[in-house]
Hints:
Blueprint: H1 4-20, E1 22-26, H2 39-42, H3 48-72, H4 78-92, H5 99-108, H6 118-126, E2 131-137, H7 141-150, E3 161-166, H8 177-186, E4 197-201, H9 204-212, E5 216-220, E6 239-241, H10 247-259
Parallel strand pairs: 1-2, 1-4, 2-3, 4-5, 5-6
Helix pairs in contact: 3-4
Amino acid sequence: xxxxxxxxxxxILCDIISNMETIVAFDLYGTLLSTExxxxxxxxxxxxxxxxxxxxxxxxxxxxxxxxxxxxxxxxDFSTITRNSLxxxxxxxxxxxxxxxxxxxxxxxxxxxxxxxxxxTLTRIASDLxxxxxxxxxxxxxxxxNSVLRSEDLSPHASTFQDVITVDEIQQYKPAxxxxxxxxxxxxxxxxxxxxxxxxxxxxxxxxxxxxTGMQAIWVDREGGGWKDxxxxxxxxxxxxxxLEQVVQEIQKHKEGLKI
Length: 260
């Protein structure tokens, strides 16, 4: 047994070491996984152009449903939202899928393709002891775990992530403040001071939500269109990258800037 004074010292040391590590929370859908890759499955039932249109509208309704539910203070899990938003999309196109085909499309959502920049980025982060990488998603624990552990593209990098954090436990969706505070608590950090936690997301609404809580946020602008979100003009990304491969460099630049 260590004496109380030693235990106290060790506790402080552990806190210091923990706070030296940079938490980097990666959004899943639209950041690591391409939601557009579901087109391959949809093309089994629709022509190429219609499959692309259905995929885009499905994603729009999927996000819209989460925001509506937040506003109504109601909750449906992300799997249910994903199914219902697809049904809405198909109704808009005056078409439908059989129950079996719906199940196949939904299962394909667990095996979305990663973007090309994911593999080199996660390979680099896996060897960087200063970074604690986690997945932080609106998806259900089951959906996200299936994607991380079973996806052909993402599963080889599953060990890079120290945790998978979803909104199931708080039953609110991003960009609700409670979601980002939940992330901080799960990582053992104070939710009132989150400037040492980084979000990496390709979704502007997610970036704005994180910044509104004091988190750092990197927006992944793969299309190079520039930042346009004006919902709250003072809330902008800490940094913008065109590839995930620039993420670690941007975090390091930010840290060095704080030291000057």
